[in-house]
Amino acid sequence: MSSAPNLVDSCGWLEYFANGANADFFAPAIEDTDRLIVPALCLFEVFKRVLQQRNESDALRAIGIMRQGQLVDLDAHLALSAARLSADAKLAMADSVILASARQRQATLWTQDAHFAGMADVRYIARR
Questions:
Q1: How confident is the model at residue 2 (pLDDT cuts 50, 70, 90)?
Q2: Which 3 state secondary structure label does DSSP give 39?
Q3: What is residue 109's three-state secondary structure?
């Protein structure tokens, strides 16, 4: 594995927390907390989903695990980079912010979202 930082997309975190079929794919990136970066937007998406599907206690526990990585805040520079990516690659806002966060930090993006398949510096696995 390279020494580049890792960024796990929200879908990867949810897969890991649910111990889904692809959880083992995401585990190495998530558990290597020294190289893990976590966009604040992923905190939002994961907290919301776990809160909807489980309860606030489980959602807070998930966020506690995520916060072991280095948090990436959405600042003006990142927002504009994400907007350019969104326009160029026809990505939704959340996806463009996550991709821009990975590129800003020269990180590998780990995901099971098909629209990232084939992009540079992306580790993709199809949903099962």
A1: low
A2: strand
A3: strand
Neighbouring CB atoms inside 10 A of 117's CB total 12
Q: pLDDT by residue (tens digit) across 42-82?
A: 999 999 999 999 999 999 999 999 999 999 999 999 999 99
Token representation of residue 79? 């927002």
C-alpha pair distances (Å), 60 with each of 43, 47, 120: 10, 7, 33
* Residue with token string 């992923």: 42
C-alpha span between 35 and 64 (Å, rounded): 17
Identity of residue 120: A
Instruction: Identify the CATH assignment for 6-123 out of 3.40.50.2300, 3.60.20.10, 3.40.50.1010, 3.30.450.20.
Output: 3.40.50.1010
Eight-state DSSP code of residue 10: H
